[in-house]
Amino acid sequence: MIQKQDYLFVVWDDDRMYAINSLSQEGYDWLVKQILELDQISFIQDLFEIVKMNHQELKRKIESLTSLCEKAESTFESYKLNMLEVNRIILNTLSSIKMFLDHTQTRLSHILDQQHKELDNFKKLTHNAYDSSFAYRFLDQFRNYTQHCGMAPDSLNILHSFVENGKVKCVIQIFLYRDKLLPSFDWKKIIREDLKNKSEKIDFIELIDEKINILDKINVSVTKDLYSNHLAVGREISTLLMPVKNLSGAPCIVKNKTGGLLVNYIPFDLIKKIPGVTLDLPLRKSPPDTSKQRNIYPDLRYYEGCVTLKMPPK
User: Fold this and answer.
1) Cα 239–240–244 angle (5° rounding)?
2) Which one of 30, 34, 109, 143 is CB 3.0 to 4.6 Å from 94, fit for a cystine?
3) Positive or negative, the Cα torsion across 292, 297, 299, 305?
4) Strand-strand pairing, 250-257 and 167-169
């Protein structure tokens, strides 16, 4: 059946591929486009996960420093090394924020074609955040500061230690010093005025926590709208799969090409995120393991997210 049809919706289960429905070229092309767009949305979410991972690493590092302080296990050498680690994590966090914002705008421009509502919403949310939050706009340029001027040890400090009930307790804070920031960089006018109005010591952790919280809300708003735009493909795939709810395998669409099949995996886990779509089916979230040799499909290769299956000669 597969060789007689140009386009098929299938379920691929180990060494068997179940042909569920034939597709028109127009239907196939539409599904491929929708799958690629969902992959782009997933990529945006992955970028924000990197931001959160860096932020969480910074929190863990502060907890680790607090523990060392309370146990009196910190030496000058270990303190210096930990300061370098804090700087490294901060640089990674700021860079990942920039990457998330830039890539999100670029990918929104690519996936939306002529529909600019979500792109306009993203720009509105980021502009509002910049206008209303000192933390948001300052850290935006502070990243440039760290790239061009560095993060000198005397500009970022860790203050700690006081005694409570006979035991050493530590409170670790990371400060930026206003009077050292102002003359050392060509700040934008609005940020320079912000800094002039701040106290001499600026709590960096408060700033980064606030910015991550704002970015989280922006990411939720944008991706929710994007997933909602794919309700049609979610319902279409749900309808296609309902007759085969007892099959266990990976949903795919295939294109019959000379010498083999071009297979696109349906991102089952992403389809389930679309509001209004219910897929309560025992289908695997990924295609079968292609690292094992199979008799029916002896030659399997991944190519840009697809799998080419070359049929053995008769």
Assistant:
1) 105
2) 143
3) negative
4) unpaired
- CB crowding 48-72: b at 16 or more within 10 Å, else e: bebbbebbeebeebbeebbebbeee
Q: Report pLDDT for 302.
A: 31
SS3 5: coil
Per-residue pLDDT at 18 exceeds 80: no
Confidence tier at 170 by pLDDT (50, 70, 90): confident
Coil, helix or strand for 274? coil
> Coil, strand or helix: which one is 10?
strand
Average pLDDT over residues 16-34: 84
Select from 293, 294, 306 the least CA-distant residue to 255.
306
**Is residue 205 helix, strand or coil?**
helix
- Predicted TM-score of the model (pTM): 0.78
β-pairing, 16-22 with 7-13? antiparallel
Query: Percent of the chain beyond pLDDT 90?
Result: 31
Per DSSP, what are the bridge partners of residue 156? 176
Compute how many other C-beta atoms are within 10 angstroms of the C-beta atom of residue 229: 17
**Mean pLDDT in residue range 152-175:** 65
Locate 164 and state its tokens: 């409570």
Half-sphere exposure of residue 65: CA atoms within 13 angstroms, side-chain side: 25
Q: Taking the CB of residue 160, how many other CB atoms lie within 10 A of it?
A: 17
Inter-helix orientation angle 204-228/76-111, to 10°: 30
CA 301 to CA 311: how far, in whole Å? 12
Rama region for 275: left / alpha / beta (φ>0; ψ in -120 to 50; rest): beta
Task: Tell me if 230 sits within 8 A of 37, measured CB to CB.
Answer: yes
Q: Which residue has the tokens 């939306």?
A: 112
Nearest to 162 by CA among 153, 170, 154: 170
Residue 164's DSSP bridge partners are 167
